[in-house]
UniProtKB/TrEMBL annotation:
Keywords recorded for this protein, A-Z: Metal-binding, Zinc, Zinc-finger
GO MF annotation terms: zinc ion binding
Family annotation (Pfam families): zf-MYND
Superkingdom field: Eukaryota
Keyword Cytoplasm on entry: no
Record domain MYND-type: where: 10-46
Protein name, UniProt field: MYND-type domain-containing protein
């Protein structure tokens, strides 16, 4: 099976895998052989019959856990367009992932040169702690090169920023300070971003 998910690896060989024990969905394996091999350990916590017969092993099979998809409104500032867009951003949450992890936004359509990296904006105007922090996804390669200049950030700062931002930017808004879930970003959030881009020094 070709489905591979970040964060899961085979208990036996550590290979990335999307297959988990079909009985408990708590242990991950790349093959039924490795599930059998680990059964003396895993069987004690799995809750399935111990030791299982060949027929029971057919029931306690591996199954692929499919990701859950959702969408949230995010703020997009592109280097190719001076306008700020608020658009749906699709996110993927992998079943079995740790509760503290936010869903993973799918951003490839905006970041075509290199993978983006995130940073979290916790402080708002006047240094006030934000109840809903902003997650800013950016292209480190563009910032390193100093090109191309982001036309949207240039527009919202009226060209008065201390330092020009380069490359695309996608901003998502967390639903609370624990940063576990996203909520829809709005036009009002652009004011906060404008203040940040006016003063940023990354």
């Amino acid at each position: 099976m070709s489905l591979l998910f970040e964060g899961h690896s085979c208990v036996v060989c550590s290979r990335p895998t999307a297959l988990s024990c079909g009985q408990c969905n708590r242990a991950w394996y790349c093959s039924t052989d490795h599930l059998r091999q680990d059964w003396p350990v895993h069987g004690e916590t799995c809750g399935a019959p111990t030791p299982p017969s060949d027929e029971e092993f057919r029931v306690i099979t591996l199954h692929a856990v499919r990701p859950e998809f959702s969408s949230v409104m995010g703020i997009v500032l592109m280097h190719t367009d001076p306008h700020v867009d608020i658009v749906p951003v699709q996110c993927r949450a992998d079943p079995g992932a740790h509760e503290a992890l936010a869903p993973k936004p799918l951003l490839r359509r905006w970041f075509t040169d290199s993978p983006p990296e995130p940073m979290i904006l916790n402080l708002g105007l006047g240094g006030q702690v934000l109840r809903a922090p902003m997650q800013i996804w950016y292209c480190p390669l563009s910032l390193q090169r100093g090109a191309p200049v982001n036309l949207a950030t240039e527009h919202i700062t009226a060209g008065k920023a201390e330092k020009a931002w380069c490359g695309p930017v996608v901003v998502l808004k967390f639903n609370g300070h624990r940063c576990r879930r996203y909520m829809d970003a709005t036009v009002q959030d652009v004011n906060l971003l404008t203040a940040y881009f006016l003063e940023y020094a990354l």
